[in-house]
Amino acid sequence: MSILIKPVNSFLVASSYRRTASIASRGMMRCFLHVSRDRTVFSKTTSDIKSSPSTHERLFPEEGNVLYDSKCSVCKLEMEWLANRDKQVNVKQSKLKLTDLEDPAFDAKDSSNGGIDYETGMAAIYVVTADGKG
Fold it and tell me: What pLDDT digit, counting tens, does each position of 82-106 carry?
């Protein structure tokens, strides 16, 4: 399964695109680049997700909040890779906040989650930027 990235309103959206055996052995960023060379379609707007709050204040200290499903083994593998890579590259302070949709403490109304509810979040991996912009 490959990953499709679409900038949508104030979110970067990663969703399943087509099957490939190499995803588990690749880092998420490489998958993004692979798919962008493989007929990726970029979209500016969509009506099926809520827009993020329009504010210039930071919603959280990290650069992006990645919403993912920890019960999905591919998603979990990719988040572990991203977290390890983030620690290697950003030694002083993490740039990524990882939010598990399966965590009982997950709150769709929390502005740092960009208004993504459980059902919407389960359809793709969403990244909400710290300033609410994509």
Answer: 999 999 999 889 999 999 999 999 9
Which of 70, 99, 96 lies closest to 85, judged by CA?
A: 96
Q: pLDDT tens digits, residue range 5-35?
A: 444 444 444 444 433 323 333 333 333 333 3
User: CA-CA distance, 32 to 107, in Å (whole number)?
Assistant: 27
- The rounded distance, in Å, linking the Cα atoms of 101 and 92 is 27
Long-range contacts of 117-123 (CB under 8 A, 24+ apart): 120/48, 120/49, 121/67, 121/68, 121/69, 122/69, 123/15
Do 39 and 60 contact (CB within 8 A), yes or no?
no
User: How do the domains of the chain map onto residue ranges?
Assistant: 3-129
